[in-house]
């Protein structure tokens, strides 16, 4: 992965006539060859940002440069170098897979034998050969999403912009698409900017990640470094019966009260290293006559990071 910036976003804002302030002065860069993610709930400003990057929506304030082209003043040059797949695939239901890809190849000005070459290249890259003569409504959701990517890639863009690429897919199709995006990055060298509200997706795919909330970027770094800001692991103790008042007092006296969180059927204790501390901590709990059903070490997650920076859990938004 290069340190060269393929995307530069400066003081970007989007205000609508209704008064909605969808994007509030955000700044970020995307490096050549990386998968850059925007993690946040619906309505956070992710889609609006990507639409401005893709020249689909005007900018109120600020600037976006893609491959040194200004999105506002050089939009045609930007479009020649990017592929864009929206959250809902807008595919022609009257075409076969092969016909749709060929149509988009022609839209980008390819002629003659190049058309067939590009179609075959796209079918191979996205593993679509077996579906090439099927009508689009006959395809599964996962295959339609792959076709949407194929259409976005017919002109060999340097940047691929994906808005919630796996929304609506079952876990198996989602995992297939993750593998495909890794392949596009590793084998084709394509830079990818994507939005998601799935924490496991952001963690698995993204080299760097911007956490966005209410139109503002509240944190930006690698998933690993973001999780390190949380610090401690947690040990979860599942209970046969709720702690009584005496047990609650003992737990809070034995451990730092700020590190203890008690619920009806379980409680957690923050520790430096969960695996190392598990046995000693469990012994202390058993000595308090607490009936423990089971234990689990919980590492910091991106949901913990989101909670730290926004005061909310992403799954609750």
Secondary structure: elements and pairs:
Layout: E1 5-15, E2 21-31, E3 35-39, H1 46-53, E4 61-66, E5 69-70, H2 75-81, E6 82-85, H3 97-107, H4 113-125, H5 141-152, E7 159-163, H6 171-188, E8 191-196, H7 199-205, E9 208-213, E10 216-221, H8 223-228, E11 233-239, H9 245-254, E12 260-262, E13 266-271, H10 274-287, E14 292-298, H11 302-310
Parallel strand pairs: 3-8, 3-9, 6-7, 7-8
Antiparallel strand pairs: 1-2, 1-4, 4-5, 9-10, 11-13, 11-14, 12-13
Helix pairs in contact: 3-4, 5-6
Account of the 3D structure:
It is built from eleven helices and 14 strands. Helices cover 36% and strands 27% of the residues. The strands form three sheets. Strands 6-7-8-3-9-10 form a six-stranded mixed sheet, sandwiched between helices. The chain has helices at residues 46-53, 75-81, 97-107, 113-125, 141-152, 171-188, 199-205, 223-228, 245-254, 274-287, 302-310, and strands at residues 5-15, 21-31, 35-39, 61-66, 69-70, 82-85, 159-163, 191-196, 208-213, 216-221, 233-239, 260-262, 266-271, 292-298. A hairpin with a 2-residue loop joins β4 and β5 (69-70). The protein starts with a strand and ends in a 7-residue tail after the last helix. By secondary structure, it is an alpha/beta fold. The protein has two domains: 5-227, P-loop containing nucleotide triphosphate hydrolases (Rossmann fold); 232-299, ACT domain (Alpha-Beta Plaits, 2-Layer Sandwich).
